[in-house]
Every structure is written in structure tokens, then in C-alpha cells.
Amino acid sequence: MYKSVLYVFCFIVGGLHAQISDFETVDFRKADSIALSYNNERLTNLPELAFKLTANLNTEVEQFRAIYRWVCANIANDYPLYLKNNRKRHHFRNDSLKLDAWNNKFRRQLFKKLLRKKRTICTGYAYLVKALADLTNLECEIVHGYGRVSTTNIETLELPNHSWNSVKLNGKWYLCDPTWASGIPNPKTKSFVFNYNDGFFLANPKLFAVNHFPIDSKWWLLEDNIPTFEQFLASPVIYGNAYRNLELHNAPKQMHHEIKKNEKVAFNYELKTTVNPDRVKLYLDNGNGAWSTSPTSISIENRSLKLEHQFKRKGFYDVHLYLDDNLISTYTVNVEN
């Protein structure tokens, strides 16, 4: 398994906490309109596609936005291909020669399917965003690392399993995840539905760090509090709606909690927009039943959401946070006498 250490020093990569709020005065409607007007364009001529997407846009961020939006709207997530690659990599994890041979073979299959059928997995998304950005003279990199979603088995997370992008705009580096922004694969049916999530575009690095762990430490884009790999594995599960609704996930830092009966668990978030306290709900599941409840206490001030919940009965609980019926995050709480 990849063993991380606590990075005492990290690279400062062109500006800290770079995020979408740096461009709050930019209207992305023109870039989005251009991107969506070229739906169904083929990938047979990438220079021409890059020109079509960016020629009528003047700023770097608008040009990158058009590229990113086009990729997210036109490239489907091939979940069966992801599962196949995951099985093979796990099977060859202890044989470096066979693992390298599979990676080379799979890379050819991956890009062939991307170019011909516009279907791919995270590596293909990140590659295409970078290729189109490079053709527009935008500095963009592929970031390899680990990603955590609700279906990730952390017990077998031994090899890097995700890729995303970092792009340099106006001298600062920003993070984005075109794979998770494009839509939602269904693990049961293995189908994919396009459902763009703007929260993964130039995301806050502190929120990004909850479920992204880059191999190269410089791509944290954080000046301090760099998580260890063990802390990353212990983090809560956050969903796409967290990126739509939250600026930051401050607490709790870990998913699992051991408490005594009648003790409280505290939650702390920074919201993108304010929310009605009546719309903040916890959904509890103890294995015998599931129910929705209001937290024991809620405080919302200047978009800072703080809540506590007291657990009065012994048991093991899955705890899901909802804002306006949107599933945000999941935790577990073991309550003992």
C-alpha cells in the first residue's frame, strides 16, 4: 500500500486557496453557451475543436471554462471499463512487471475508446481537458492520486485510483475534477447519466482535500494542515451535493465516532448560500430502522452552519446530513453505555 507521511513542507504552487470565488465577477454564460453549442463534435481534430471552443473568448478562465464544460457535457463515464481496470490492477498489484504490462495495454484501449466512442474513465477526462488546454496555450496538468466516494472500499485502496486536473489561470493554480463533474454512474445498472456539477470547477482546495489525495504533494494547493494518507482514509464520505452547497467541510474530520450515551457529535460547515434551519436534517439508520430528525441544536451565522446532535440510545448509527433534501455527507457513530 502507498504509505504517506505528513508533509512538513509543501510546494507553494502559484497562490494559495485559489478557487472559483476569485472569478465572482466573471459571467460564464457565454463560455457555457459556446461549449454546449458544439455538442456532438467528434474528437478527430482536437486543434479545430479547441479553436471553436475558445476563439471568441478573451480571458483565460473563460477559455478554460468552455473546454471544461464541453468535456463534461460530451464525454461519458464508462463505469464497466473502470471496474475492469480496477480488477486487473488489484490482481497484479504484487507483480510490477504484469502491472506495467496491463497499464500499457489498458492505456491503448482507453484512448481508443475515448476517441472513437467518447467514453472513458478519469484518466481520459483529465487527458482530454489537458490536451485541449494545451492547444489553447493554457497551462494545465493531470494530477494522479486517490479519490473517495461512497462505494470506495478503503480496505483495498492500495493503488492510485483517480485522476483530475490543475490549471494555471492569471498566474495561480486551480483544481477541478471533470470526471465527477460530468454526471453520475449507476453502480447497479452500470449506466451513466450526464448531470453537470459546477461545484468541481475551480473548487476550494480545502473541500477538495476531503476526498482527493494527490500523489505529488504540490497539488494540494494548501499551505498547512496537509492530511496524511491515514487521515484521508478516515475522512467522512462527502457527495457531489457537498460541492454544490458547501464552501468548506470543517468538522467532523473523521467518519467514525465512538461516544457514550447522551454525548453529542458536533458538525461545522461553511455554506455557499444560506439555508433555512428547518431544511437541515439528519437521517439516522441503526440497522433496525431509519428515520429523519432535526439536529439537537442548529446555528447559522454569516453562512457558517454549526449543529450538534445528542445520541440518547446505545447502538451503531449511520448518520447522513441533508440540506434542502440534498445528501451532503455520511458519518458513523457507535454509542455505548
At a glance:
The chain is an alpha+beta fold. The chain has helices spanning 29-37, 46-54, 60-74, 79-91, 96-117, 122-135, 178-182, 205-211, 229-234, 240-245, and strands at 76-77, 119-120, 139-147, 162-169, 172-176, 183-185, 192-194, 212-214, 237-238, 246-251, 256-260, 264-271, 280-285, 290-293, 297-301, 304-310, 315-323, 326-336. The strands form five sheets. Strands 9, 11, 13, 14, 17 and 18 form a six-stranded mixed β-sheet that branches.
Describe this structure in words.
The strands form 5 sheets. Strands 9, 11, 13, 14, 17 and 18 form a 6-stranded mixed sheet that branches. The longest helix has 22 residues, at 96-117. The chain has 337 residues and is of the alpha+beta class. The chain has helices spanning 29-37, 46-54, 60-74, 79-91, 96-117, 122-135, 178-182, 205-211, 229-234, 240-245, and strands spanning 76-77, 119-120, 139-147, 162-169, 172-176, 183-185, 192-194, 212-214, 237-238, 246-251, 256-260, 264-271, 280-285, 290-293, 297-301, 304-310, 315-323, 326-336. Residues 1-15 have low confidence and may be disordered. It folds into 2 domains: 20-235, Roll (C8orf32 fold), CATH 3.10.620; 249-336, Sandwich (Immunoglobulin-like), CATH 2.60.40.10. It is built from 10 helices and 18 strands.
